């Protein structure tokens, strides 16, 4: 299989600093200077890098799928903030690159995950991510404890349940769909294949939108870990 080198560009606004043309120029210059043959430039224009927007970044999702399939040798971005702004998402994606032998370069921070410094950066990201998770879990645990003790709904959208006032009533149709997702996953289907199945058959998530990979991943993992409820 021929593995390729990709430059990734993202900006939130057309007029912002580090425009698409600027990012492209710097990525091409970096590639030439380091002897990397750049095969493709993939762009997400006018999209935030925040965690909640990651599923709307078609270019980002395309690259993630290519990395998972073992098709990407090098990934080059201007800065780590162009790749993402959510620490957990950044860490998980870089960890996935490491497993698939994809080298990740950021020009501004001079990160190269094939180098000793790059591996140190990966370990640092891991430590920071674990610390962030711990803090989030601690705050969440305290909040949920208070809400549960007072019989309050603790999330806006709960796939598999209907909200009646502050009570949760099981939604049998959605629960049946979750069991279907579980069977598809157990049969060896990927999250992407499950998403295609759901959207092809015009199923919708709790917000009334098409399912995303993040939706399915969250629903199934919460079912496995908690065997209770999950955001849809």
Task: Provide a descriptive summary of the structure in words.
It is a single chain. The chain has two domains: 112 residues, Rossmann fold, CATH 3.40.50; 84 residues, Hect, E3 ligase catalytic domain fold. Strands 2-1-3-4-5 form a five-stranded mixed beta sheet, sandwiched between helices. Strands 6-7 form a two-stranded antiparallel sheet. The C terminus is likely disordered. It is of the alpha/beta class and 232 residues long. Helix 4 packs across helix 5. It starts with a strand and ends in a 6-residue tail after the last helix. It is built from eight helices and seven strands. Helix 1 links the parallel strand 1 and strand 2.
List low-pLDDT spans.
228-232
Class of secondary structure makeup: alpha/beta
- Which strand order does the major sheet show? 2-1-3-4-5
Q: What's the β-strand tally?
A: 7
Name the beta content range.
Answer: 5-15%
Chain-averaged pLDDT: 80
Radius of gyration: 20 Å
What is the H/E string? Answer: EHEHEHHEEHEEHHH
Measure the end-to-end span: 37 Å
Shape summary: globular
CATH class of the largest domain: Alpha Beta
Count of spatially separate domains: 2
Helicity, as a percent range: 40-55%
Largest sheet: 5 strands, mixed
Individual helix count: 8
CATH architecture of the largest domain: 3-Layer(aba) Sandwich
**Assigned CATH superfamily of the largest domain:** Resolvase, N-terminal catalytic domain
CATH topology of the largest domain: Rossmann fold
What key attributes describe this structure?
alpha/beta; Rossmann fold; five-stranded mixed beta sheet; two-stranded antiparallel sheet; 7 strands
């Amino acid at each position: 299989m021929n593995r390729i080198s990709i430059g990734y560009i993202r900006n939130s606004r057309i007029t912002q600093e580090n425009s698409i043309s600027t990012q492209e120029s710097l990525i091409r210059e970096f590639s030439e200077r380091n002897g990397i043959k750049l095969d493709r430039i993939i762009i997400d224009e006018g999209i935030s890098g925040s965690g909640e927007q990651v599923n709307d970044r078609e270019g980002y999702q395309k690259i993630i799928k290519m990395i998972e399939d073992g098709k990407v040798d090098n990934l080059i971005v201007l800065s780590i903030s162009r790749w993402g702004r959510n620490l957990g998402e950044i860490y998980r994606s870089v960890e996935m690159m490491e497993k698939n032998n994809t080298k990740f370069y950021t020009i501004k921070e001079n990160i190269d995950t094939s180098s000793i410094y790059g591996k140190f950066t990966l370990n640092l990201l891991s430590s920071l991510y674990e610390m962030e998770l711990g803090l989030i879990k601690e705050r969440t645990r305290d909040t949920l404890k208070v809400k549960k003790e007072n019989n309050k709904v603790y999330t806006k959208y709960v796939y598999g349940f209907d909200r009646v006032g502050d009570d949760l009533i099981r939604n049998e149709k959605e629960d049946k769909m979750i069991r279907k997702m579980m069977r598809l996953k157990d049969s060896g289907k990927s999250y992407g294949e499950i998403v295609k199945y759901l959207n092809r058959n015009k199923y919708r998530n709790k917000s009334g939108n098409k399912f995303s990979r993040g939706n399915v991943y969250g629903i199934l993992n919460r079912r496995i870990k908690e065997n209770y409820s999950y955001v849809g």
